[in-house]
Write a structure and sequence with these properties.
Oligomer: single chain
CATH topology: Nuclear Transport Factor 2, Chain: A
Number of strands: 6
Number of domains: 1
Shape: globular
Strand order of the largest sheet: 2-1-6-5-4-3
Structural class: alpha+beta
CATH class: Alpha Beta
Radius of gyration: 17 Å
Length: about 130
């Protein structure tokens, strides 16, 4: 019985530490699932490289928010699935599929560590043929 309690406690400790050490904020994934540009606001850095269907811009936070809001308003979001995520040194990323009324889009979102938290520095959204 004591052995089970120790194993359970160890598993709980490992799970809690991994939860607090997340490199990709869960709020970003939720914002993509809902098509909520305002939900991305708090995770953006001061400057964002934004590539939406071959239109590229290096925008400040407000400009990027406007462009993403336009994208979400013209492409009603039905869901978002994370296909892959990873971390390397002071950066991390997610690759996912955004399901919209106008088709599927591949989303690449790149983060960098700034003052002990990860912020978005690049978002790329491309139409897929699937």
């Amino acid at each position: 019985m004591k052995k089970r309690v120790v194993i359970l406690f160890t598993c709980l400790l490992v799970w809690a530490s991994s939860l607090f050490a997340q490199d990709v904020p869960v709020g970003v994934i939720v914002a993509f699932k809902k098509g909520n540009s305002q939900g991305l606001d708090r995770y953006m850095g001061d400057k964002i490289d934004l590539i939406i269907q071959d239109r590229s811009s290096n925008a400040d936070k407000q400009g990027a928010m406007k462009e993403i809001n336009v994208f979400f308003s013209t492409n009603k979001v039905n869901g978002f699935d994370v296909n892959h995520q990873g971390k390397r040194d002071e950066s991390s990323f997610i690759v996912g599929t955004l399901k919209t009324a106008n088709g599927m889009f591949r989303v690449n979102c790149f983060f960098r560590r700034v003052q002990n938290k990860y912020v978005i520095h690049q978002i790329r959204i491309d139409k897929t043929n699937e």
